[in-house]
Amino acid sequence: MGNGDLLTEAERAGFALLVTTDKNIRYQQNLADRKIAILVLGNSQWPVARRYVERIVAAINAAAPGSYAHIEIPFR
Protein backbone atom coordinates (compact mmCIF):
# COMPACT_ATOMS: atom_id res chain seq x y z
CA MET A 1 0.00 0.00 0.00
CA GLY A 2 1.41 3.39 -0.99
CA ASN A 3 1.03 6.66 0.89
CA GLY A 4 -1.84 7.77 -1.35
CA ASP A 5 -3.76 4.59 -0.60
CA LEU A 6 -2.97 4.91 3.09
CA LEU A 7 -4.28 8.47 3.19
CA THR A 8 -7.43 7.53 1.28
CA GLU A 9 -8.16 4.58 3.57
CA ALA A 10 -7.46 6.66 6.69
CA GLU A 11 -9.89 9.33 5.47
CA ARG A 12 -12.48 6.71 4.58
CA ALA A 13 -12.14 5.21 8.08
CA GLY A 14 -12.74 8.62 9.64
CA PHE A 15 -9.24 9.41 10.87
CA ALA A 16 -8.66 13.13 11.31
CA LEU A 17 -4.84 13.07 11.62
CA LEU A 18 -1.89 11.10 10.31
CA VAL A 19 1.35 11.37 12.29
CA THR A 20 4.36 10.26 10.26
CA THR A 21 8.11 10.69 9.96
CA ASP A 22 7.99 10.67 6.14
CA LYS A 23 9.43 14.11 5.38
CA ASN A 24 8.79 13.67 1.66
CA ILE A 25 5.05 13.02 1.90
CA ARG A 26 4.18 16.62 1.01
CA TYR A 27 6.17 16.28 -2.23
CA GLN A 28 4.99 12.76 -3.07
CA GLN A 29 1.26 13.37 -2.57
CA ASN A 30 -1.19 16.03 -3.65
CA LEU A 31 -2.41 17.17 -0.25
CA ALA A 32 -4.61 20.00 -1.54
CA ASP A 33 -7.86 18.03 -1.56
CA ARG A 34 -7.20 15.87 1.50
CA LYS A 35 -9.52 15.93 4.50
CA ILE A 36 -6.97 14.37 6.82
CA ALA A 37 -4.45 16.54 8.64
CA ILE A 38 -0.81 15.48 8.40
CA LEU A 39 1.83 15.99 11.07
CA VAL A 40 5.43 15.11 10.22
CA LEU A 41 7.85 14.48 13.05
CA GLY A 42 11.50 15.10 12.23
CA ASN A 43 12.67 12.19 14.39
CA SER A 44 11.00 8.95 15.42
CA GLN A 45 13.39 8.05 18.24
CA TRP A 46 11.28 8.25 21.41
CA PRO A 47 14.15 9.26 23.76
CA VAL A 48 14.66 12.37 21.61
CA ALA A 49 11.06 13.00 20.48
CA ARG A 50 9.67 12.90 24.02
CA ARG A 51 11.50 16.15 24.78
CA TYR A 52 9.20 17.75 22.20
CA VAL A 53 5.90 16.35 23.48
CA GLU A 54 4.47 19.80 24.23
CA ARG A 55 5.14 20.92 20.65
CA ILE A 56 3.70 17.69 19.27
CA VAL A 57 0.54 18.00 21.37
CA ALA A 58 0.14 21.66 20.35
CA ALA A 59 0.45 20.71 16.67
CA ILE A 60 -2.11 17.93 17.10
CA ASN A 61 -4.52 20.31 18.83
CA ALA A 62 -4.04 22.91 16.07
CA ALA A 63 -4.51 20.42 13.22
CA ALA A 64 -7.40 21.20 10.90
CA PRO A 65 -8.80 19.12 8.04
CA GLY A 66 -6.32 19.17 5.19
CA SER A 67 -3.57 20.89 7.16
CA TYR A 68 0.12 20.01 7.06
CA ALA A 69 2.63 20.64 9.84
CA HIS A 70 6.23 19.63 10.39
CA ILE A 71 8.01 19.57 13.73
CA GLU A 72 11.76 19.55 13.37
CA ILE A 73 13.31 17.29 15.99
CA PRO A 74 17.10 16.98 15.95
CA PHE A 75 18.76 13.58 16.06
CA ARG A 76 20.52 14.17 19.38
What value does the Rg take, in angstroms?
12 Å
Strand order, largest beta sheet: 1-2-3
Average pLDDT score: 90
Helix fraction by DSSP (H/I, runs of at least 4): 25-40%
% residues in beta strands: 15-25%
Shape: globular
Number of domains: 1
**Count of DSSP helices?**
4
Low-confidence runs: none
Structural class: alpha/beta
Q: Order of SSEs, N→C?
A: HEHEHHE
The profile of the biggest β sheet is: 3 strands, parallel
**Termini, distance in Å?**
32 Å
The count of DSSP E runs of length 2 or more, i.e. the number of strands, is: 3
Summarize the model shown.
By secondary structure, the protein is an alpha/beta fold. It is built from four helices and three strands.
Task: Write a concise keyword list for the protein shown above.
single chain, alpha/beta, 3-stranded parallel sheet, 4 helices
Structure description:
The protein has helices spanning 3-12, 25-28, 46-49, 53-62, and strands at residues 17-20, 37-41, 68-71. By secondary structure, it is an alpha/beta fold. It has one domain (3-71). The relative contact order is 0.22. The model has no long low-confidence stretch (mean pLDDT 90).
List the helices and strands and how they pair.
Blueprint (H helix, E strand, L loop, with lengths): L2 H10 L4 E4 L4 H4 L8 E5 L4 H4 L3 H10 L5 E4 L5
Parallel strand pairs: 1-2, 2-3
